Queue: 4 jobs
Job 1
Amino acid sequence: MTAAARPVLIVAEQLDAAADMVVDQLNRRDVPVIRFDAATFPQQLTLSAGHASAEPGWTGVLDDGRRTTRLEDVRAVYWRRPGRSTIADTVPKPYAAWAQNQADAALLNLLAALPGVRWINNPHHDRIAAHKPQQLTVATRCGLRVPRSLITNDPAAARAFAKQVDAPLICKPVLGGRLPVDEGRALMVATHHVNPEEFDDSIRSTAHYFQETIGKAYEVRLVAVDDQVFGGTLHTTSEQACTDWRTDYEHIEYGTTPVPDHILHSVRRFLAYYGIVFGAFDFAVTPDDEWVFFENNPAGTWAWVENRTGLPIAAAHAEYLQGGTE
């Protein structure tokens, strides 16, 4: 198979705007695309892969019932928040979780073992890159300013931190995700301001992630795709949005900004440290024009940035996934 005919695998949920935009850009470049959700394996998606001692890697077939591709022909994988494998209801409950883990591991690890395949991003690297406490350490080593932070379940330590900072504090989750409320509904645990005078023994109930509040002229969702970096700005017009813009989209004004050279250099070092090529970075820009790193989501959303600003982020994804044509 010629390099130009080798397909890109898009592994994402069916309703995913970012995946749709990347597929469109690859189609414009006449790059073959095979798209599926990992949740369709093993009930709708068929996988057969073998490895012989003389072969450099696994060979075999992926078949979704409409299209078939050979594993050895895959040029790149865009792993975009797919669902987990779905096991048939006929599998008894004591074995269903085991079967799901087997299916998840088989699909991901076989794809990860393919030689010479480009990834955005390899999930094995994503898992490590998503750890917020380590991110602050890496960001500092890469030359980025970060907020003074404390993770604790000790009320006395929290009070001492508040006294040391002597400025407003926020509390945020150590781990992202949503809190199940009831059937079909989930609650996002947002960043919120805290009053140190109210710190009590409830802090002992779990780990709490406290940070100093950073004064903001505006915020930046910085999207990096390989060497290309895009700065989308968020100017918030309510206190709620200023604290966590995800809680009040009606009070956000969007725009773009050039990314300073020293931030570009640090972001690229950060990505290289983790062995990833994509990141959705959150920065605050202070009234003194200093960029302060909050966190990076290695599987973060970006379709809204392109839709609001016109920044060519999907095209950057397609360019990387396409790779060389020879």
Job 2
Amino acid sequence: MPGVWETEAEWRRLKRELGEWHARRRLADATGQHHSQLQAAHTLVDGVLDRLHGPITAMTTAGAHVSEACRVHDRRLAWLRRLWEFLRVRLDQRDDAVLGPVLRAADEVVWSCYREPFASLGIVGDGMAGPPPLPFVEPGLTPEVFPQGLVPGELRRDVDAPFLRAALEQLPFAVVRVPASCATAPWWLVHLGHEVGHVVDAQLLGPAARARLVDGCGLDPATAQDWTRWSGETFADLYAALMHGPWALWALSTAETQDPAGLSQRRDSYPPPAVRLLVMAHALDRLGAPLDDLQTELARWQAVVDADASLSASAQAGRHVVEALLTERVQRSSWRDLADWAPGDWRRKALLPWSQRLTSRPATPEPKPRRADIRAAVAATVMRRRDGDATPTAFDGDGIGADLLAWLPALRERGTRGAAGVPTAVLEAQCAALARDLMDAEPLP
């Protein structure tokens, strides 16, 4: 039967384990790579723990009433432990011999894509919207982002039914799932540009702005409703194009079905695949990006759309939507400017030196790395992967993958990542809200 001693002991255990983990991770993070994420995770969980402790120490008697109160406190602590385990595992994966290299590479790709617009706006230190997204590896075919405000399913699994009603509404930072296959095929890290686009959208654009842009396109109500619903994914596709040029589109085309029936299949969050691909191609065309390597694919997608009047109309509407997104300004800067966009960077001629350079492993970190170098190295490797389709038996996937995993950390931008310090007011509000939700979900008897 639970009692005050057991509940207090469990609180002390969680507090001690959290502190030991925080100290160990700080020692392991010599470069400050995950400084703000680690600080945010520890501050959130520790702050909630402190808020839960007062009611626990207030129990000074025994009996059935106190036993029931202890059960409630134990369930609160169990849910909070689940939250910590969720964050802990994703940071600790970097200690794994197999997952560590791909996550160190993914960290650089995510940072390069995430930091670019904030750097263009001159936003530094505590002006950033908290820690950058954290990549983690999980079995799955495609990347997926869980931004603040979206709770991953595993956190919703029951500790006790009342706690489902107190599900966490905000993680302290976004987490980005990296498919486990990237450990052997790291060129697919190119898909992270799309996932980071969702986080950038949430912080610099948002659903209301996207809905306004769609409304301004003069579409009929049903079409406007579709593209408002699809606009989040459409912006993420546009952002991926800005981060990796046409190589992001080619990578996306390999993830989408190539079957004509599947290419026309209607979906909920995304346009039909052929429409989605053509709209992304239109965005690249308006950006002046080279599409020479995609002519065969473009013709196939266009044929699918031309055969269906509704798809054709939807694709035309989508072109208007991406044009509206491209003309939208954030603090008087266009998305071209925010992404430091230069169409010539994505031509074969520009990427070939990177393709050749990657074959020579870096002996030391680059003395003056640029964020764009990360994206260029990934794009050059995607280009080599695409070329490998022509001669699959000669494609050296192991060597190319190892080259990329060696180079990306060597191109690391210096300094700690994220805000100079975790935004205290934001974390304090999160701590207070989570503690309140946990206590309100199942009041003490």
Job 3
Amino acid sequence: MRRSLAGVALAVTSMVALSFLIPLAALVMSLVKEQGVTAAEQQAAALAPVLTLTTDPAALRESAASLDAEERLVVHLPYDGALGPSRAPAALLERAQRGRESISQEIPDGWICLQPVVLADDRVAVIENFVPEAELTRGVAESWAVMAFLAVGLIAGSVLVADRLGAKVVRSSRRLAQASHALGQGDLETRVDPMGPRELRDAGVAFNAMAHRMTQLLAVERELVADLSHRLRTPLTALHLASERMAGTPESARVEAAVAELEAELRAIIAAARTPLAVGPMGQGMLGTETAPGHPPSAPRCEAAEVVRRRTAFWSVLAEQQNRSCTLDLTQEPTAVGLSDDDIAAVVDALIGNVFRHTAPGTPLGVQVLRTAQAVELVVEDGGPGIPEPDLALSRGSSTGSTGLGLDIAQRAASATGGSMHIGTGPLGGARITVTFALATPPPPTRTPRLPRRRR
């Protein structure tokens, strides 16, 4: 930006300087030439009274010397010829003698001035004054050099001023961009000091107001999540009492385990909602990733196949009760992804839960974990009616009869690792959802301290 402003200042100042310098240079040259010609005409006119009084060559030379023009003034007498070397063309000289008119005209080597003088015997003598070309351009080059120097100084000064002003604008813009980038990375405490032009100052004030409002909204959202999660404690207590009344039955242990797991999830949600907002992978905000000041957060990492195996085993119990066939196919290769166990578990629970929620009992279910060269694929398919509008299903809160949170959770988790999600039709005849996670980068090798050698 500074270079652009300096270029604009250079172009504008150069055009203005040239528009003034070119006519001014021509005017200086014209004035110098006019002064030389005027001086020559005045010298010739000053010698004319002397010639009317005497035609003595010695007196005429003495008078020409007094006018500082002895070498240039030549007198053409009608009977003695020219007193000095003449440069006047014969045609002009004859014209001045016969026509008795003053002639001032440019010739190839300079400028010639012819002044006719009528003598006592009615004869005509001609005073010639020749101005060489050097006299007509004396001082023009120096004047042009001074004007060029002033123009260069003016252009350099304007470029310097534009660069200084541009530096101030660029500094303000760079600080605002850095603050915006820091806010996008999750630093909610970042603010800018409004500076620079009025528009940038207004932008800085608006940015600070936006950051402050965002912090308030996130705080309200975290408190709301914590409050809503805390309100679920009441139905959980009722479930605990119901499970205690069911003690001794085959279902009591399973219900108690499910209630305990649900309570643990609520505790985790409340604890995550109370912690400050940190930055997750790929710029996604995650709750519950508070780190010590001055230390970068550790990158999450887990084996996706192992988490899928555990969560599928949990859902297979409910599948047996509903007479669903649940198949599981896991790859034997490493499936490390850059997400935590809870994130992968949330994706698996969301996808399998959608199958139980939107298909009739007895509908088959299949789960696969595949490994490709650069990614891990989680495939969940069923034999239900499928998803007629995949694009609408991916819009959070827009799908019919559902909040759309399950697919949104899966899509956000895939995007956090640089992956994607695809909805299609599987071999079972129903929906086939493929969630692709990018493989996690291997951790850097840890260096073991070298033991000092002991000398014998």
Job 4
Amino acid sequence: MRTDRATVALPTEDRRRAHVFFTALGFETPGDLADDGVPEPLQVAVNDGLRVMLIPTGGFGWVTAGRTTADRGTAECLISLTADTPAEVDDLLSRVAAAGGEVASPPQQQPWGYTGTFADADGHLWEVCVPPA
């Protein structure tokens, strides 16, 4: 088993909207384009070892053996990104708002680092954080 790569799968209500959102934030979405102009499968390359795959809500049950997805506004997980500087945190959260996302908690200093949290186009929570030195 490879332990140097991981994929987190999340449901998406609208592939095109999710694609536009993540490309507006500067993330790569590798892959061949499907008929709708969006890569299939839709994956967000977070770093060299992590990808987030966005699966249409209607098909998510095929992967989860029929389990229902959580209602919007329910947090099942938090994807955390590491930034090098507070300015990177501020910049990403500014782009989130401009791309139609929601800044769930504004950037601020916390005991675990300079951090802010945002919800993507489907309401999934992402944190971006500069860990303490």
